[in-house]
Amino acid sequence: MKKLALVFFFNIAWAIPNTEPSIPDQDSPYMCAANTLAMNTRLCIDITEVPGYMYKDYLATAAESDGEQSAEFRERIPDFSKWEAVFEKLDAKAIEEKFFETDEFALMPIVGISRQQAEDFCVWRTKMFEAELAKMSKRERAQFPKKFRFRLPTASEWSRMRFLALEKAMLKRLDKIANGNLKAFKFSKSKIMQNNEKVSHIYESKDSKVGFFNLFDNVAEMTSEEGIAVGGSWYGPNEKANYQQTFEYTSPEAWLGLRCIFEIID
């Protein structure tokens, strides 16, 4: 395995949210975290599925703190054998090498992870955002909540996205973010992901009303309830775009990813 470097791609890939730190709800007293939209004054949620590059950054942190040969680090790695269902011409070893050594899967939703791995990722993401805010001036920091956390949503929380209605200016801004990230990661040159009939990139389809990407296709998304996912996937489509439809799972799957809640506590 190529030695992992702690890169923090989200500071590059979220170039627009990083210069304008978040996409705020005018009714909310605080700004949301980058890459999220406010559903109410307490809850924000990712505009996309969690991408491969962010999970790769999480693994880079683990490699730096625990060592790449440690059991703790290995426990965080996705089950790449599950990915073989998506990339039938590659075995798990080849997929793992490309994941760590290239950006081929940077904008693919992370799959093949367990609920525990997803929850550990949320803890890491909370710590990383705390570190980002600590670098801000006192005035800038005051725009964000004092206490917060990233976590998996409940099925009910996830379904609240259906109540949003974004203005055209915001929808255009989301398109600008998507196009910028696709260009930054040179997705058009990703030979493995291009024209894949199962999994697409995290910006493949955008709901024209609520603005979120890939809500009912691509990969289903874990909830805080063990074994329950929402949305829809290439394996189990949600053809009626039903926000309240759920899917069951028992282990990591090639059709299962996550979308994080950013909860404002104080």
Describe it.
It is built from ten helices and eight strands. Mean pLDDT is 89; it is low at 5-27. It has 266 residues and is of the alpha+beta class. It has a four-stranded antiparallel beta sheet. The radius of gyration is 17 Å and the shape is globular.
Low-confidence stretches: 5-27
Series of secondary-structure elements, N-terminal to C-terminal? HHEEHHHHHHEHHEEEEE
What does the oligomeric state look like here?
Answer: single chain
Q: How is the main sheet built?
A: 4 strands, antiparallel
Tertiary shape: globular
What's the number of extended β-strand segments? 8
Structural class: alpha+beta
| Percentage beta strand | 5-15%
Helical content class: 25-40%
* Residue-averaged pLDDT: 89
Tally the helices: 10
Rg estimate, integer Å? 17 Å
Q: Order of strands side by side in the largest beta sheet?
A: 1-2-8-3
Alpha carbon gap, first and last residue: 42 Å
